[in-house]
UniProtKB/TrEMBL annotation:
EC number(s) recorded for this UniProt protein: 5.1.1.3
Higher taxonomy: Bacteria, Pseudomonadati, Pseudomonadota, Alphaproteobacteria, Hyphomicrobiales
Family listed: Belongs to the aspartate/glutamate racemases family.
One GO MF term attached to the UniProt entry: glutamate racemase activity
Protein name: Glutamate racemase
Reaction(s) the record says it catalyses: L-glutamate = D-glutamate
Pathway(s) per entry: Cell wall biogenesis; peptidoglycan biosynthesis
Organism (species): Aquibium carbonis
Chain sites annotated for binding substrate: 10-11, 42-43, 75-76, 190-191
Length: 273
């Protein structure tokens, strides 16, 4: 008996913020977590190259793991590649992660919202279109951070982060205008929720930090409704059981393995994609 997994994908460990929500909602499901760490960070990639890279990689991932649903737990990839993945692999349901601009626009009281993301997500047409469509009445500041995803990677492995660096990265999110202040910061990179306590601590004033992880997990669950958690697929890899993590570098160090263990994932020794 084999269980078709939910495939959770990110450039690094950021997708774990979505995985932990998905586990709560889908305790019976098996998860395959894929970190494309060989290509991390996605934030700095040229758009065409990243597109081709992710579409090609998914050809191998889908063939190897045959997921029931694939969650792109990465804004930088989703805002660029999602529609291409759907057309390249029409048999696989994909769930994307895109900046939570619509809920932010609905919730803000001051009308000043900031979107904190990688430089890639900030410059996407997709992100601009979301703002035009859903937040035309707000003042939206896009803040591209070069360092936060890498800081989150280090923090999760080493337990230490330079708070001054976090403070400097989030500072441009805080706007004061005509007596009003930013009241919502959209965490538009799945790595950032890991640093949210440090962000709270170093922020100049309290704001709502919007993390879309639960909404993404709910969307994945809704696509799985009707698909049983157990299915007979004896021809597939990872024939039974445990949730696994794959690192495309195939070079996860001991700290990374420990981190993954903490999330209930065993790192596969050999790259199978
Ligand atoms: N976790 C990714 C995201 O949600 C980005 C990290 C990276 O730059 O690769 O955008």
């Amino acid at each position: 008996m084999n269980r078709r997994p939910v495939l959770m994908f990110d450039s690094g460990i950021g997708g774990l913020t979505v995985l932990r929500e998905a586990r709560v909602l889908m305790p019976d499901r098996r998860f395959v977590y894929v970190a494309d760490d060989a290509a991390f960070p996605y934030g700095a990639w040229d758009e065409q190259a990243l597109n081709a890279h992710v579409v090609e990689l998914f050809g191998r991932l889908l063939a190897a793991h045959d997921p029931d649903v694939a969650v792109i737990a990465c804004n930088t990839a989703s805002t660029l590649v999602l529609s291409n993945l759907r057309s390249a692999y029409p048999d696989t349901p994909f769930v994307g992660t895109v900046p939570a601009i619509k809920p932010a626009a609905e919730r803000t009281a001051s009308g000043l919202v900031s979107v904190l993301a990688t430089p890639g997500t900030v410059k996407r047409q997709y992100t601009r279109d979301l703002i035009r469509e859903w937040a035309a009445r707000c003042h939206v500041r896009l803040v591209g951070s070069d360092r936060l995803a890498t800081l989150a990677e280090a923090y999760m492995r080493e337990g230490f982060v330079d708070e001054e660096a976090v403070r400097a990265e989030i500072e441009p999110c805080f706007v004061e205008q005509d007596g009003r202040r930013t009241d919502i910061v959209v965490l538009a990179c799945t790595h950032y929720p890991f640093l949210v306590n440090r962000m709270r601590k170093t922020a100049p004033w309290p704001v709502d930090w919007l993390d879309p992880a639960e909404a993404i997990a709910r969307r994945a669950l809704s696509l799985l409704a009707g698909s049983p958690a157990l299915a007979t697929r004896p021809d597939r890899l990872d024939p039974q059981g445990d949730d696994i993590a794959i690192f495309t570098s195939n070079a996860a160090d001991p700290a990374t393995r420990r981190l993954m263990q903490g999330f209930g994932l065993s790192v596969m020794e050999a790259m199978t994609v």
